[in-house]
Specification:
With about 400 residues, the protein is α+β, with helices and mostly antiparallel strands. The chain has a single domain, classed as tRNA-splicing ligase RtcB (Alpha-Beta Complex). The chain is built from 12 helices and 15 strands. Strand 2 and strand 3 form a beta hairpin. Helix 2 packs across helix 8 and helix 7 runs antiparallel to helix 8. The mean pLDDT is about 95.
Length: about 400
């Protein structure tokens, strides 16, 4: 009987329903290891903030309906900006139709099949976006994408949009750089501005879930699902790069001398990895990969910093970290409790002095910082369990949820 590992600590708030769901997941067919991150919280039958390794079979429901969701970080050399001017420029950047001159069907197919580098080859792509995409590694480590036809209709024009829920685009400032060597690898310096995009495959994940999540997959069905998942993940990675481009454009940081390093991590996917010396299918649902020496990010809320961390490759947590602070209120609970406590203009500013560009009043309350766990105990738990070490903190300046 598999006993799940819980990466937690004395100050981490955790619901019993979340740990119950993790225990149930550890008993699924083929499971050889299961770990709950310190942001573990209940999902619709299956926990969020969990990592599960299986042999032979794949469980699509352990990825859920947001396949490919993740975060992209781009570091710049810019240190100063006017918040009022930047907010105006951000609104303009996110309203711009970047692909007016691009056939949407051709764009979807190219991104589904080849990911970010598709943006370097299609006619009509803005030159600065083309150059930004060309900076990315030539290979993405994903298996070949399956046929896109079942998923194309309805998503051809969603590329380059943030989406709802906890997704966001943000400009943040680097605070402390605690690991100077790791920070230098992507050009991190105190006070530098960083763009951060947290989004996914914009409905493609839900479409995959509708097709696959009630099944346990092996053989040809497993391979077909993994091919479709790869296409959705490529779409999601390209989507985050385009969101980063919008942020960089508003910041005036698209020139080569202002762009430093970047990285992208996925929170919801399945990968072939070694576990206990043998190959396994590692499912992450709301957890970020953290192999030894690799940079990753644990997202704060708009009222708390995010942390860039360096993975240790610890197998107890399946080489993973929390993807964020984790919810402590459901969205409906947050609206019920917080709408009577705060005025709208108050929730558009945070205790850190940052502002939120969001025209959806309900979403402002659903994603209020008080709806999330404190980030400090989450980071401390990851370090105490030797999953990752802190590199630098990022304090939000402006968060976009349009």
């Amino acid at each position: 009987m598999i006993q799940p590992v819980l990466i937690s600590g004395p100050d981490v708030w955790m619901e019993s329903e979340a740990t119950r769901q993790l225990a149930a997941v550890s008993q699924l067919e083929g499971c050889v290891h299961a770990a709950g991150m310190p942001d573990l919280h209940p999902g619709r039958g299956f926990p969020i903030g969990a990592v599960v390794a299986t042999r032979e079979v794949v469980h699509p429901h352990l990825v859920g309906g947001d396949a490919g969701c993740g975060a992209r970080v781009v570091v710049t050399s810019v240190e100063r900006t006017s918040p009022d001017r930047l907010e105006r420029r951000l609104r303009a950047a996110f309203e711009a139709d970047l692909f007016e001159a691009v056939d949407p069907g051709a764009l979807f197919e190219a991104v589904w099949q080849t990911g970010v580098h598709a943006l370097t080859k299609l006619d009509g792509i803005p030159d600065d976006l083309r150059r930004l995409a060309a900076r990315e590694p030539a290979t993405d480590g994903l298996p070949p994408s399956a046929e896109s036809t079942p998923y194309r209709l309805g998503f051809e024009r969603s590329l380059g949009t943030i989406g709802g829920g906890n997704h966001f685009a943000e400009i943040a400032r680097v605070g402390r750089v605690l690991d100077r060597e790791a920070g230098a690898s992507i050009g991190l310096a105190r006070n530098a501005l960083v763009v951060l995009a947290h989004s996914g495959s914009r409905g493609l994940g839900a479409a995959l879930a509708a097709t696959w999540t009630t099944r346990i997959l092996r053989g040809e069905d497993r391979d077909r699902y993994l091919g479709e998942l790869a296409g959705a993940c490529r779409f999601a990675r390209a989507n985050r790069l385009i969101l980063a481009y919008r942020l960089l454009s508003a910041l005036g940081a698209l020139r080569d001398h202002t762009l430093r390093g970047s990285f992208d991590v996925s929170h919801n996917d399945v990968r072939s990895e070694a576990v206990a010396g043998a190959g396994a299918w590692v499912h992450r649902k709301g957890a970020a990969p953290a192999p030894a020496g690799a940079l990753t990010i644990v997202l704060g809320s708009r009222g708390a910093p995010s942390w860039i961390m360096k993975g240790t490759g610890a197998e107890a947590g399946l080489c993973s970290v929390a993807h964020g602070a984790g919810r402590r209120m459901t969205r409906s609970e947050a609206v019920d409790k917080l709408t009577h406590r705060y005025r709208r203009r108050e929730v558009a500013r945070s205790a850190l002095g940052s502002r939120v560009v969001c025209d959806d009043k309900i979403l402002l309350f659903e994603e209020h910082p008080e709806a999330y766990k404190a980030i400090g105990p989450v980071i401390a738990a990851l370090e105490a369990h030797h999953q990752a070490t802190r590199v630098a903190d990022l304090t939000p300046i402006i968060t976009v949820k349009l």
